[in-house]
Amino acid sequence: MSICSFHPRCMTETEPTLAELAAASGLEPRTIRSWVAGGLLPGPRSRGPGARYPADTLERLLAIRGMRDRLGMPLAAIRQELLVATPEQLQAHAARAAALAPEPTQPAPAASSALDYLRGLRERTAPEPMAEAATPSPRPLPADTPESPPSHQGSLALPPTGFEALERRLAVTRRPPARKARAEEWLRLPITPDVELAIRGRLDAEQRARLERCADLIRDILLGREP
């Protein structure tokens, strides 16, 4: 059965859709899209299911198929040929695809097989359960060796792991927080612009009054004012 029910020249005056290109060339739409993405074919002029392609797309599409299926050329060589081919050479390549059968369609996988595939994928990626570590049985002690205390018989102390080991390590290396020094109280009594009387410690009202009188006396002495 021929893949083309009409000659490519019939579509040179109109811009075909993707469905029309697939029907006239016998190729699957996904094949046409892949060739557009690879730069072998021009892209559609608009978007959407009704998008149309340039009028000469069908002839170029048949030429690509003729070179691939009749001459066995890889797509890389076809791309180079399309760069230098004349219109007459493209028509000759397109004529080679006239008697080719339509491209076989690949049926979509059945729902059951898809579910089986996903189920098998989950089973392969699921983590395997960790086997429990076998506790070694205690070796028999010689007859002249005293037995261990009853509380330790039948058990073997294993080093801690995971968070338990981390907590123990932090408890050993952690230093106690340094105690903050108490805020010291200072009483500063100005005497002259360059001299002041500074007293450290908490003072009551009577002590503060005495020190203020002392500051006044010192000020009078420094300034030459005898009391």
From TrEMBL:
Q: Which SMART domains match?
A: HTH_MERR
Q: Where is the composition biased (Pro residues)?
A: 137-149
What molecular functions are annotated in GO for this chain? Answer: DNA binding
Q: What SUPFAM superfamilies has UniProt attached to this entry?
A: Putative DNA-binding domain (SSF46955)
| PROSITE patterns linked | HTH_MERR_2
Q: Which Gene3D superfamilies does the record cross-reference, listed alphabetically?
A: 1.10.1660.10
Residue ranges of the region described as Disordered: 128-159
GO annotation, biological process: regulation of DNA-templated transcription
Q: How far does the signal peptide extend, from start to end residue? A: none
This one is known as MerR family transcriptional regulator
